[in-house]
Every structure is written in C-alpha cells, then in structure tokens.
Amino acid sequence: MKNTAEIIHMDHKGGIVETYNPATGELLHTYRKHSREEAEKVIEKAHEAYKEWRDISIDQRAKVIRKMGELLKENTDELAEMMARQMGKPVSQGKEEVKLCARICEHTADCALELLKDERRETEKGSAIISYEPLGVILAMQPWNFPVYQVIRYAAAVLMGGNTTVLKHAEICWKTAEKLKELFEDAGLPKDAFGLLLVDDQTVDSLIEHKNIRGVTLTGSAEAGSIVAEKSGKAIKKTLLELGGSDPYIIVNGVDLDEVVPICVQGRINNAGQTCVAAKRFIIEESIYETFKEKFVAAMKKTTYGDPIEDTADMGPLARYDLREKLHNQVMESIVKGAKCLTGGEIPSDEKGYYYPATVLENIQPGMPAYDGELFGPVASLFKAKDLDDAVRIANDHKYGLGGGVFCPDEDKALKIAKRIETGMVNINTYALAQPEIPFGGVKDSGYGREHGGFGLREFVNIKSIVLKK
User: CA angle at residue 269 from 367 to 147, to 5 degrees?
Assistant: First the structure.
C-alpha cells in the first residue's frame, strides 16, 4: 500500500490533491488546488456578497440558518456516508454529528434574536445604543475529525452575525465542504457568501493579510494556532483559536467503577479517539487504581474496529496513514522511555486500512509524548494519584486546557475539584461532547475565544456604542 503522506506531499507540488479512503487505502477523490489568484477571487466575491448579506435583518438571517438545520437533517444519510469514506467515522456516529449540527443551527438562530438586537442604555449625560454589527469576511480553517460539525460550529454564528465567510477545510474533507456550500445556498444564503478555498496551509496563511479578511477562526494544532495568531496579529485581525487538548479525567474513591469504566472507554474511543475533547488522561486515586486499571484494560481489550460503512464495530480507522504513523511513534517513544503498554500498541498487519487498536499506557512520566503531548487516537494514559491534591496537580501539569472531567459520588466535592482544573470545560460523572447551549473553548495552549451557548455570536461582530444627546 502506498504511503498516503508521501502521495499528498508530492501531489501538492503539482497542484493536485488526491484523497484516500482510510478503511481501504484506495483513491477516493482528486482535486486541483486553487492558485493564489483564484483564492483571492473567492475572497473578493465573498466581500461583494457581504454587502448584500449585512443588510439582511436578523429575523431573515435566522430563517436561513434555521432552514440550513432542516436541510442538514434531510441530508443526514448522505453526509454520514461522506464522512465514513473521507475520514473513517462510523456511519452511526456521523448521523449523530449531523443531528448535533442541526441543533446548533436552531439554537444559534434562537439566541441571535436576543443577543444581536440593539440595546439602549442610560448614561450620566443622556443615553446610548449598543449595536452589534458585522465585520466582513471571516476566514476559517477547519480540520477533518468532525467534517460537518467543525464547519457548522463556526459558520452558523459568523453568518448569523451578518458576516460572510471563506472556508479552508482539510483536504480530505473538500467533498463535504462542497456539499455544505450547496446546502447553505439552498437555504437562502446569497451566492458566494460561503466560499471555499481549495488551497494548502501555506497559501491560506498568506491570505490572512488580504484587505477583505476581517477575522480568522482556526481549529487545529497549537503549532498551527501559533502561526495563525502571529500572522493575524501582524495584520491586526481578530482571531478565535480552538487548538489541541489532552483532557484529564479524575477518578475519585467511592464511585461505582462498573458504571464509570464504560463511560471512560467511550470517552476515549469515540471517533477512534480523534477528538480534541476526548478523555485522554485518566488520573485515579491510589486506593482504587489497581481495580480501575483491571476493569478499564479488560474493557479496552474488547473494543473492536472495522469498516465505518458497515458500522458494526466500535471504531473505524484513523483518518490518514501519516496520522497513524505519528500516533504509533508517540506510543513507541513513550514505551522506550519507560511507559508500560497494558494492551494494544501494535499496528494491525492484516488490515488494508489505517486501523489502530485501543491502547492503554501506564508508568507515564514527563518527557514522554504520552505525558507532554496529545495522543490523537484510541490511546489512554493512566496515572496513579496519591490523593486529590496530587490528582489536580497531574491534571494541570500540561500545556493544554480544553476539557476534562471528574467522577465523584459527592457532587459538591466534584464541583470543587472541577473548579480547580485549568480547562475551559469540565464534565462531572459523565462524558459529553460539545452542546449548543453551553460555551465551548479552552485556555493555555488550547486557545482562546468561545463558541456555542450564544457566545460565538459576539466573537466576530463590531460592538458599537452610539451616544445620543440628552
């Protein structure tokens, strides 16, 4: 089987991108990249569409976003199959992703009617109106792990605010991006208000300085976020960054491990572990460590992988060959440096696709990829904590601060622990992905800014004060 990472690298040189089905390694789609000039035209067309869209009332914009939610539901099966073939997500998980996106559209439209309307405030010298006005064209760079959700999460809020957008989606998801553009226009969005940039990372980074780009949103690695933040800052463009995560889950003595372990397993293997807010680091009180480990490893050993279209297994493949290689190298380096592999850790030799087994590591120390980095795949890291203070110390001893969790029978105690964890989000006695009603985002190297819960509606608007004479 060919090395996909090498193929993509070579094809980028020639202006061609080939994508592969991660379950089989077979060629899926071939694209010709946009030239710099073609990409700039997409931005300029989005700017022209902005002149129309910004003047549409909030009520009318809300109708378009709600209609988009309806169209997503109508196209659930097609979108779920696209995701399965493009990045390996089991069809049932893809359907849940589309269902979530429809809810996001509905909730965003509902929130906007209140959060974007003019506010009148009395002042010492008279009164003022606070107006929430669009900025212009927002440049978005989105990853492959949730091909529909990552786009809808930002786009619903950005468009609802009266902006237009140009999207640079991950290459393996360009087909999904094309479908979403079609659906937005069917929902009533002006032509070119949602534009697609079929370019590589270097080209899109250089487009940040374009005069018609007024804001930039990125979901990706911390390394990519640093580059985008630097270039955006130099050009004085507002940014929103949702970057990596290595979410800690603290397991407190007294919980029912027969209930907790299946939740932890699901939190680690959902989407084959390719989730920023996956449960990745499990920090267990010393008194229950061995019991948790025994039950958790036994459950991880039972985890299955298989064709995402057939949808009979717990996991599909990893999205690309090079991603699997990177994950396996991180596991191997951690083992060489002293980590112990309790299950998994071996690339299947009898599969065509980019599969990786559920893996569990322990004896993890600073200086290992399993301690310092993010393992973006179905690899769990176990830590033994002396007590709760030590558990919180381990949880916070990381550059990332996206999500996390606490399993504790005493809710008040759990809340106190949750408030000590340095992340943007914490689950208590559950594992949950993003929800439209509550803010989503991180701290430290996990980025800044918030989406969902209405918060994203004001990330890319001009909050204007209009002072009236008394």
Answer: 100
User: d(Cα 73, Cα 204) in Å, to the nearest integer?
Assistant: 31
Span 116-152, pLDDT tens digits: 999 999 998 889 999 999 999 999 999 999 999 999 9
pTM exceeds 0.70, yes or no: yes
- Taking the CA of residue 6 as centre, how many other CA atoms within 13 Å lie in the half-sphere pointing to its CB? 4
Q: Is residue 165 assigned to a domain?
A: yes
Range of the domain at 203: 34-243+446-469
Q: Taking Cα atoms as reference points, which of 181, 228, 220 lies closest to residue 204?
A: 228
Same domain, 255 and 189: no
Q: Cα-flanking dihedrals φ and ψ of residue 423, to 5°?
A: -140, 170
With tokens 């504790």, the residue in question is: 408
189: helix, strand or coil: coil
Coil, strand or helix: which one is 353?
A: coil
CA distance 345 to 365: 18
- The confidence score (pLDDT) of residue 14 equals 57
23 within a domain of the structure (yes/no): no
Answer yes or no: is 42 within a domain: yes
- For 82-111, write each residue's pLDDT tens digit: 999 999 999 999 999 999 999 999 999 999
> How far apart are the C-alpha atoms of 56 and 45, rounded to whole Å?
17
Instruction: For residue 461, give the DSSP letter.
Output: E
Q: Which residues are catalytically annotated?
A: 242, 276
